[in-house]
Amino acid sequence: MIAQVMLLVVGVVAVFGDQPPYSYSAPQTYEESAEAKYDFDWAVNDAYSGNDFGQQESRDGDNTQGSYYVQLPDGRRQTVTYYVDGDSGFVADVKYSGEAQYPESVESYEAPQRYAPPRPTYDSPEESVEKPVYAPPPRPTYAPPRPTYAPPQRTYGFPNRK
């Protein structure tokens, strides 16, 4: 009997064990993308803050070329021209224009101020202990209620006959 059950289990596994599991994902599609092709540039020139920088780049397939520049704090302008040509990697040419200018520092000397710790400005504390005030215990205010119903008074007399 056990052999028959084992044979049945092996048969079921052999038939249904090789089926792919159910999947609910979106169908996969693979498309060849077109060769990359773009051309852009941007720049910032703010006289108030002194910011002056920008970039220009273009690409056609595996060939990329461009440049960027930045105004350095010493007054020079650094320009980097670069290209990427498939297998060559990133090749850059760095150039500086203008002359570095360093303003002369104005040295000044001021005698250090003497430190004197502040004088204490407090008085000794006053005694502020209050004497406890004991209130007498509350008196009970309960009084039995007064009846609001007055029983009728009995009167005895002779009946009126007419």
TrEMBL record:
<feature type="region of interest" description="Disordered">
    <location>
        <begin position="102"/>
        <end position="162"/>
    </location>
</feature>
<keyword id="KW-0193">Cuticle</keyword>
<keyword id="KW-0732">Signal</keyword>
<feature type="region of interest" description="Disordered">
    <location>
        <begin position="49"/>
        <end position="72"/>
    </location>
</feature>
<dbReference type="InterPro" id="IPR000618">
    <property type="entry name" value="Insect_cuticle"/>
</dbReference>
<dbReference type="InterPro" id="IPR051217">
    <property type="entry name" value="Insect_Cuticle_Struc_Prot"/>
</dbReference>
<dbReference type="GO" id="GO:0005615">
    <property type="term" value="C:extracellular space"/>
</dbReference>
<dbReference type="Pfam" id="PF00379">
    <property type="entry name" value="Chitin_bind_4"/>
</dbReference>
<protein>
    <recommendedName>
        <fullName>Cuticle protein</fullName>
    </recommendedName>
</protein>
<dbReference type="GO" id="GO:0042302">
    <property type="term" value="F:structural constituent of cuticle"/>
</dbReference>
<feature type="signal peptide">
    <location>
        <begin position="1"/>
        <end position="17"/>
    </location>
</feature>
<feature type="compositionally biased region" description="Pro residues">
    <location>
        <begin position="134"/>
        <end position="150"/>
    </location>
</feature>
<dbReference type="GO" id="GO:0031012">
    <property type="term" value="C:extracellular matrix"/>
</dbReference>
